[in-house]
């Protein structure tokens, strides 16, 4: 079809009108641009010329001072130390390679370092300072200062660097800072320009990472006028930055040091918690490492040593490590059964040394059997069959719910890296995780803390604290922020009958103090400081061989949870020694030593030990590698 | 569907077409590009490498493309419009999935001899499709809501895609360029008034909501707005570039410091001195006179296009030329505003001058369409 002539005429007229309007608007805008050009290049030319020729404005960021971290008594755990360094502004240096070559006559730089510096400077923007060498001696710094006229763009500076005076003690709790990586930047939506400063350091793990932003503070900046030769003429203005917040942790550095020393070379973890307010007094994980290595840039060899060590020094075993809790889980099963109303504390079951369920035989650790046992006896002697019976009556869902109530299978809100959630298994969990039905054997295994159950030492300490205090107490690691106390969480009572809790506590008391208790050798005899606890041995394999005859990595884990004083609980302790063997023989003595240290606020008198263990205690103290200053304090007191 | 009154007796055929090319426009395009070669030569410190030489080669290729496009009858391009538009959308999807990410947000397909940015192609295919649409639509229906909604969708689809990249500059060019075609086609004033009013309303709402409970943007986006309004508040980011760009441009004075005498080389302050900020160098080295000369060349190109469009009685041809001219205008207007600190830095190159293959070839191809429309315009008998 042919468009009607009228239509065409109408369309042409319309386009002509609109086209002219649009042309007019464009012309107008072009005139505006020309006017702006004239204004800038003619009217304001002198101003700009002055800026361009005689002076340039240079901005520089003033990095804020990172917040300090103290222990509960105000001892410094993370501080900033002064370091001498040499910075270069590529923009002012002109011929970079030449300048660098001259600098290398004064301070030793390897070819590798020089190459890296050049590459790094070409990558980042030319007006940003680049630290070319840090941790110089005062002599080297002065020599650079004297030679500055021959070194354009290079200036000696005094900077701050993170330092951890407690060395290995707090490596896992505090973590460390390190250079910002591209990966770090990719995770942050709108990175602070500070992070783009070459060699700026941010928290990588632990508290340093979880509290990164408050600790970092806000950058200040200053504008300075420089002349064409790069000399600073004057400071135009300066915005002061805001220093990071200071944190005070709940940890007691003396106790922490004792815990690390007591764990020694074992692959082990221990947590001490104040049951009245949730304060984490010590979070030990051994072996450890010196976080200062990471701040200064760790060598490949050192790093490999840490990553290839089979005792995994880099892992924070206290919060990330998950272990089958073994018999230390029996309090959970007992409380679940009593609360479900399927059993009373006085009810007895017969233990023949095993239990037949649906054609399978589940053994008690004592092959000859325990005979008739009630709740108290079952805890004392750690009878497995009693708990099989309870599991059959109470069912896994009750046990799982009780475990969560007591803090197992719950991710606690503690600012450390990769705090593990653990597993309090139930039917729904298994269906989701393995797409299989829950079988009765799973319940039996779970009832004695084996099978699918997994808990971290931190969770075991929370469990012991909650049983001891009867409250829903939550662990707390940060005591105060810039002097403002943080809130204590979980002072509400648990919804478990106080009678049931008391019966379980009584059982735990007997584990340590009665003639037949599994941990009798590790009791405390000091007046008003008696300890209650529970041993645990968790199988790493199912074959029954004596521990001494198998290689280290196949031995059982040794566990112990405890609280004291029994009458008026103050502290809870959990200890896990990986592949240590039996809980009573290996973990309980460690827990007792730590508990005594906490109760006395330092080395306890030997009289607190039962006479049979005093000699061992003395030996232990001799071999202990405590920090010098703490050792001094201990001897001053003594 | 109407068809062009294409008449073999009145429209030139074969080699006679060359005589009917709009040679004035060609000369202007060469002149502007030559300014570009000179500036690229200058910012490289008086050397053909690394930028001037490839740019000249690309320009030669672009001219070939332009003449090829010009020789093909315009109705052929009109019939291809929808296909070309869909094709460029496909390319956009393709780079979204497989493209290399380079220089921040720009994405391209590596063809070996050049890197093709589909977002550049889109700017032209969008204008083509809109022109073809209004050619097909009855003039009486132009302002009916339904027939206004359709082109709006046509514009917003590629816009949404480039915003995802995110490429603010291209998105801006697509929206405003498309709106220009709609405007020229005679869509009622009130639509544009409403859009502008709601735009102003939205901006005020965004600014007014800052710091209140119903804040519309994230804090850092507000900080970017601050940077635009007060470049010196962002010492390390775009603000520094703008401040330095203004200083360099302003210090050019009436006639500039002379070729290669700019402080650019000494300052070395911009990673984009050969692309987005090349006008700064021109204004610094050739001053107000140089800057305005380039602006005049640009305005002349626009003027020749508008004259050609208004003389053309074929609806598709006129709208296409106006659309290309409008897009071209936006390129240089946004870029110049940017380097003079009148607009935020959105990353739009200076057309035919900035270093970059895709934009150059696509623009010359677009001027090929303008030429084709010019050569094959309907002529009355006698």
Describe this structure in words.
- The complex is a heterodimer of chains A (638) and B (382).
- Chain A has 638 residues and is an alpha+beta fold.
- In chain A, the strands form six sheets. In chain A, strands 2, 3, 4, 5, 10, 17 and 18 form a seven-stranded mixed beta sheet that branches. A five-stranded antiparallel beta sheet of chain A has the order 12-11-21-20-19, with helices on both faces.
- A three-stranded antiparallel beta sheet of chain B has the order 1-2-3.
- The longest helix of chain B has 34 residues, at 278-311.
- In chain B, 48% of the residues are buried.
- Classes of the chains: A alpha+beta (638), B mainly alpha (382).
- Chains A and B meet through helix 1, helix 2 and strand 1 of A and helix 7, helix 10, helix 12 and helix 13 of B.
Give me a quick take on this structure.
The complex is a heterodimer of chains A (638) and B (382). By secondary structure, chain A is an alpha+beta fold.
Question: Could you name the key traits of this structure?
Answer:
A: alpha+beta, 5-stranded antiparallel β-sheet, 24 helices, 21 strands, 39% helix, B: 382 residues, mainly alpha
SSE layout and pairing:
The complex is a heterodimer of chains A (638) and B (382).
Chain A lengths: L4 H39 L1 H9 L1 E8 L6 E2 L5 E13 L1 H4 L2 H8 L7 H13 L6 E7 L1 H9 L7 E10 L7 H4 L2 E3 L2 H6 L13 E3 L2 H5 L1 H5 L3 E8 L4 E8 L7 E3 L3 H11 L4 E7 L5 E7 L5 H5 L3 H9 L21 H11 L8 E3 L2 E4 L2 E4 L7 E3 L1 H7 L2 H11 L1 H10 L21 H8 L5 H8 L9 H13 L8 E4 L2 E2 L12 H16 L18 E7 L18 E8 L6 E7 L5 H18 L10 H13 L4 H10 L1
Parallel strand pairs in A: 2-10
Antiparallel strand pairs in A: 1-8, 2-3, 3-4, 3-5, 6-7, 8-9, 10-17, 11-12, 11-21, 13-16, 14-15, 17-18, 19-20, 20-21
Helix pairs in contact in A: 11-22, 14-16, 14-17, 15-21, 16-19
Chain B lengths: L16 H4 L2 H21 L8 H20 L2 H25 L1 E3 L3 E5 L4 E2 L1 H19 L8 H20 L3 H18 L3 H20 L10 H11 L8 H13 L13 H4 L10 H34 L3 H25 L17 H19 L7
Antiparallel strand pairs in B: 1-2, 2-3
Helix pairs in contact in B: 2-3, 2-12, 3-14, 4-5, 5-6, 5-7, 5-13, 5-14, 6-7, 7-13, 10-12, 12-13, 13-14
């Amino acid at each position: 079809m042919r468009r009607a002539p009228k239509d065409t005429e109408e369309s042409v007229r319309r386009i002509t009108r609109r086209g002219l309007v649009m042309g007019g608007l464009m012309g107008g805008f072009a005139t505006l641009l020309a006017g702006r050009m004239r204004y800038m290049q003619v009217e304001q030319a002198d101003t700009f010329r002055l800026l361009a020729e005689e002076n340039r404005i240079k901005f520089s960021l003033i990095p804020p001072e990172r917040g300090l971290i103290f222990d509960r008594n105000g001892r410094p755990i993370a501080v900033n130390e002064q370091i001498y360094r040499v910075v270069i502004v590529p923009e002012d240096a002109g011929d970079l390679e030449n300048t660098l070559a001259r600098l290398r006559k004064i301070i030793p730089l390897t070819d590798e370092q020089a190459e890296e510096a050049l590459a790094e400077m070409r990558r980042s923007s030319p007006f940003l300072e680049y630290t070319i060498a840090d941790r110089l001696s005062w002599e080297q710094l002065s020599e650079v200062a004297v030679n500055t006229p021959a070194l354009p763009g290079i200036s000696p500076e005094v900077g701050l660097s993170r330092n951890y005076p407690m060395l290995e003690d707090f490596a896992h709790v505090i973590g460390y800072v390190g250079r910002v990586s591209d990966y770090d930047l990719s995770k942050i939506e709108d990175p602070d320009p500070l992070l783009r400063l070459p060699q700026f350091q941010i928290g990588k793990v632990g508290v340093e990472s979880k509290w990164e932003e408050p600790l970092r503070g806000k950058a200040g900046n200053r504008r300075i006028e420089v002349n064409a030769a790069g000399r600073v003429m004057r400071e135009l203005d300066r915005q002061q930055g805001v220093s990071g917040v200071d944190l005070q942790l709940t940890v007691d550095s003396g106790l922490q040091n004792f815990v690390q020393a007591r764990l020694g070379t074992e692959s082990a973890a221990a947590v001490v918690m104040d049951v009245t307010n949730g304060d984490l007094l010590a979070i030990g994980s051994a072996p450890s490492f010196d976080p200062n290595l990471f701040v200064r840039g760790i060598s490949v060899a050192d790093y490999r040593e840490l990553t290839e060590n089979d005792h995994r020094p880099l892992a924070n075993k206290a919060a990330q490590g998950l272990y089958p809790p073994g018999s230390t889980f029996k309090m959970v099963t007992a409380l679940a059964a009593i609360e479900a109303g399927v059993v009373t504390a006085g009810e007895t079951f017969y233990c023949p040394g095993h239990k037949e369920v649906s054609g399978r035989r589940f053994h008690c650790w004592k092959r000859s059997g325990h005979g008739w046992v009630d709740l108290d006896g079952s805890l004392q002697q750690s009878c497995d069959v009693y708990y099989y019976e309870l599991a059959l009556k109470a069912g896994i869902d009750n046990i799982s719910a009780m475990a969560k109530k007591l803090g197992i299978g719950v991710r606690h809100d503690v600012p450390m890296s990769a705090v593990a959630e653990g597993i309090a298994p139930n039917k729904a969990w298994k269906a989701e995780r393995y797409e299989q039905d829950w079988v009765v054997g799973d319940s039996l295994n779970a009832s004695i803390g084996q099978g699918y159950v997994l808990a971290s030492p931190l969770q075991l300490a929370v469990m012991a604290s909650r049983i001891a205090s009867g409250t829903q107490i939550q662990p707390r690691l940060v005591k105060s922020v810039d002097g403002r106390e943080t809130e204590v969480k979980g002072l509400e009572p648990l919804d478990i009958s106080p009678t049931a809790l008391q019966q379980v506590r009584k059982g735990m008391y007997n584990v340590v103090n009665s003639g037949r208790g599994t941990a009798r050798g590790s009791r405390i005899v000091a007046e008003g400081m008696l300890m209650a606890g529970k041993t645990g041995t968790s199988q790493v394999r199912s074959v029954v061989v004596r521990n001494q005859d198998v290689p280290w990595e196949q031995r059982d884990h040794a566990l112990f949870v405890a609280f004291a004083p029994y009458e008026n609980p103050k502290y809870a302790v959990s200890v896990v020694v990986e592949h240590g063997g039996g809980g009573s023989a290996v973990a309980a003595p460690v827990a007792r030593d730590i508990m005594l240290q906490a109760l006395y606020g330092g080395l306890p008198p030997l009289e607190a030990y039962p006479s049979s263990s005093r000699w061992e205690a003395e030996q232990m103290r001799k071999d202990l590698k405590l920090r010098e200053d703490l050792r001094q304090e201990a001897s001053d007191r003594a | 569907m109407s068809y062009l009154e294409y008449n073999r007796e009145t429209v030139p055929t074969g080699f006679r077409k060359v005589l009917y090319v709009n040679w004035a426009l060609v000369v202007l395009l060469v002149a502007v590009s030559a300014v570009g070669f000179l500036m690229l030569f200058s910012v490289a410190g008086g050397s053909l490498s690394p930028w001037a030489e490839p740019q000249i080669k690309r320009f030669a290729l672009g001219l070939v493309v332009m003449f090829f496009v010009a020789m093909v009858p315009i109705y052929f391009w009109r019939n291809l419009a929808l296909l070309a538009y869909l094709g460029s959308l496909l390319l956009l999807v393709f780079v979204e999935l497989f493209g290399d990410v380079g220089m921040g947000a720009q994405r391209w397909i590596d063809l070996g001899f050049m890197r093709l940015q589909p977002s550049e192609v889109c700017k032209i295919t969008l204008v083509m499709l809109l022109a073809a649409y209004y050619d097909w639509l009855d003039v009486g229906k132009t302002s009916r809501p339904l027939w206004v909604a359709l082109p709006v969708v046509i514009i917003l689809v590629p816009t949404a895609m480039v915003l995802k990249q995110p490429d603010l500059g291209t998105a801006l060019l697509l929206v405003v360029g498309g709106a220009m075609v709609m405007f020229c086609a005679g869509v009622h004033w009130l639509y544009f008034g409403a859009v502008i009013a709601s735009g102003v309303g939205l901006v005020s709402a965004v600014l007014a909501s800052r710091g209140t409970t119903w804040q519309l943007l994230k804090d850092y986006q507000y900080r970017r707005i601050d940077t635009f309004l007060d470049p010196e508040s962002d010492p390390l980011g775009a603000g520094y570039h703008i401040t330095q760009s203004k200083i360099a441009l302003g210090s050019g004075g009436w006639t500039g410091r002379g070729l290669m005498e700019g402080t650019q080389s000494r300052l070395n302050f911009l990673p984009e001195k050969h692309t987005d900020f090349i006008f700064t160098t021109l204004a610094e080295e050739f001053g107000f006179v140089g800057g305005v000369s380039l602006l005049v060349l640009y305005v002349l190109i626009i003027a020749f296009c508008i004259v050609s469009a208004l003389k053309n009685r074929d609806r598709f041809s006129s709208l296409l030329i106006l659309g290309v001219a409008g897009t071209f205008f936006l390129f240089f207007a946004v870029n110049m505003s940017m380097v003079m600190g009148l607009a935020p830095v959105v990353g739009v190159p200076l057309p035919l001058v900035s270093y970059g293959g895709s934009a150059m070839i696509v623009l010359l191809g677009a001027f090929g369409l303008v030429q084709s429309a010019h050569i094959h315009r309907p002529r009355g008998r006698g």
